[in-house]
Amino acid sequence: MSLRSAYRDISRRIIHRPVGAYDRLILGDEPQIIRLVNGGYEQTVLNDVTGQLITKKLPFYIIRRHWIPSKKRYAICGKAHDLDDSICIGCDQGYKLSVGYVHTVIHLAYYHKVEYTDKDGNVVLRDGRPVLIDRPCEGEECKMCKMKKEKFFGKKLHWTVSARAMDQLEALEDIISGTCMCGTELIIVGYTCPRCGQPVEATKKEAFCAGCKRFVRPKITYKCTGCEKPRPVSIYDIDIAVKKVGSGTDTTISVFPKSPPGPPAGYKGSMEPLDLKSIFRPPIFREQREIYDFHGEINVEGEIEQSEEPTPDPDWLHD
Ligand SMILES: [Zn+2]
Ligand SMILES: [Zn+2]
Ligand SMILES: [Zn+2]
Ligand SMILES: [Zn+2]
């Protein structure tokens, strides 16, 4: 075995960690009950209108990803935004780029802790102990239940959706936000500019502020007859049921409210958002070469930073 192949073997094993391999929410035809977690992810994004970079705290994490047809999977783009001059073989070689919106979610379902096995069926050990992973309970016919594998309710996952699905989540929020957290219907008493505080003529989504001379998302002032502190219900306050609709490029989601506002039903675990910045970190150049099977030259200026730190399972390893 050459040094090169041995090294590659090791580096693959460091990255191919079972931890996190099952941490992605995958939807099917059956509705799944989830709770979205507002992650407060600080991100630098390009403002389409002004062409300027802005750093914002967002409830979700935005990823840029390239589709690799031959591997039927996505790879995280090496560039954080259009103006980023980091190396990306995907961009350089013209792989289709799309944007994904990643949410931390609590999957409100039963899971089991089971031993992780390799492809030959051997239990994988770490420090002499079996590595445990979480698998969803399969209901009445569940083998893991019969084997009395440790069972728990509610698992934190990440969930990547398209812009289309984001529109659907937003549409649901538009409906539920007509109601106050106390359960009373809210009355809108006015719209103001979030930048200068001046009252603006507005719809719920957009207003032109004469003071700032720009379009703003108006701040809405509410009145509630049921309580002193009116606050509209947000999509982060209720459990929702989601499922996949359609197939292929036409796949989207269907989403329904599933609970009144309050903590997620039956879940006792932490609501701490996942570190999506690490989970979806852009691959370094050496990793990009493997991902894209690209061993030619691209115009590289400056040093390429290489990290030997074991990293959380990056999304591009999932198929
Ligand atoms: Zn790219
Ligand atoms: Zn089970
Ligand atoms: Zn203003
Ligand atoms: Zn109220």
Describe this entry's structure for a reader.
- This protein is α+β, with helices and mostly antiparallel strands and 319 residues long.
- The protein has one domain.
- The protein has six helices and 16 strands.
- The chain has helices at 3-15, 89-92, 143-146, 163-176, 276-279, 285-291, and strands spanning 32-37, 41-46, 53-58, 61-68, 73-76, 97-115, 125-126, 129-130, 132-136, 151-161, 187-192, 207-209, 214-216, 219-223, 240-245, 252-257.
- The strands form five sheets. Strands 1, 4, 5, 6, 9, 10, 15 and 16 form an eight-stranded antiparallel β-sheet that branches. Strands 2-3 form a two-stranded antiparallel ribbon.
- A hairpin with a 4-residue loop joins strand 12 (207-209) and strand 13 (214-216).
- The longest helix is centred in the middle third of the chain and has 14 residues, at 163-176.
- The radius of gyration is 23 Å and the shape is flat.
- The two termini are 29 Å apart.
- The relative contact order is 0.20.
- Residues 10-19 and 302-319 have low confidence and may be disordered.
- The protein binds zinc ion (4 copies).
- One zinc ion is lined by residues 180, 182, 184, 224, 226-227, 230.
